[in-house]
Design brief:
- Helices cover 24% and strands 30% of the residues.
- The protein is α/β, with parallel strands linked by helices.
- An eight-stranded mixed beta sheet has the order 5-4-1-6-9-10-11-12, with helices on both faces. Strands 2-3 form a two-stranded antiparallel sheet.
- The chain binds cytidine-5'-triphosphate.
């Protein structure tokens, strides 16, 4: 099958030398792209900046901002059979980009931020995607109920939910523990290398 994967953080520029980003390493999304290529799928990885090597046999589109990622996804999603949105997309971006480096002339500085487009939340409508749709949910509390709400709100077939308040799993870590939240059931995937969770997620595509 043809699979699209988003991965990594996004970078939202503030001025020519500064940006807003987050702690995503990209490891989970890259592991999924790698596992899917090994399983014989045709994989397109759309990723924000990471220090990882692109997995062998995977097509790759590098992006920086949430808006760039949205544009790349909108272009390629219609021809895909499945999509896994593992990117940690910035929810907010500076309202305006300063053409010059912002000077420290005052004692405080306020940044005006505006919401980015929800890429996963746009997959069904307006992008019209009908394939198998997997989202991630980074939660610090009420993990299962928040994930189940995202599953319904975004029209997903599966939400992979992480508790990001734990520092032994998730961001930057090689390991993950997740709740796999389907429309009709929830499964616990116990703590294991991200590679093992990636294989499990790939095995469910199209289930
Ligand atoms: N996501 C996305 N585009 C955004 C924000 C999030 O595609 N602008 C995707 C992520 O890739 C992930 C899912 O949405 O698959 C959930 O991300 P998360 O940050 O947990 O949830 P949000 O929808 O941003 O909701 P909240 O921050 O309010 O929990």
């Amino acid at each position: 099958m043809k699979l699209l994967v988003t991965a990594g953080p996004t970078r939202e520029p503030i001025d020519p030398v500064r940006y807003l980003t987050n702690r995503s390493s990209g490891k989970m999304g890259y592991a999924i792209a790698d596992a899917a290529a090994h399983a014989g799928h045709s994989v397109l990885l759309i990723s924000g900046p990471t220090s990882l090597d692109v997995p062998v046999g995977v097509d790759f589109i590098p992006v920086e901002t949430a808006a760039d990622m949205f544009a790349a996804v909108a272009t390629y999603l219609p021809r895909m059979d499945a999509a896994v949105f593992a990117a940690a997309v910035a929810d907010f971006t500076p309202a305006s980009l300063s053409a010059q480096k912002i000077k420290k002339s005052d004692d405080s500085l306020s940044l005006d931020l505006v919401k980015t487009k929800d890429i996963l939340g746009s997959a069904r409508e307006p992008l019209g995607f009908t394939g198998f749709l997997v989202g991630f949910a980074a939660e610090t509390e009420n993990v299962e109920s928040n994930a189940r709400h995202k599953l319904a709100a975004k029209g997903c077939d599966l939400i992979v939910a992480n508790d990001v308040s734990r520092n032994d799993i998730g961001f930057d870590s090689h390991e993950n523990e997740a709740l796999l939240v389907f429309p009709d059931r929830t499964e616990l995937f116990p703590k294991a290398p991200k590679h093992d969770l990636a294989i499990r997620i790939v095995s469910m595509l199209g289930e």
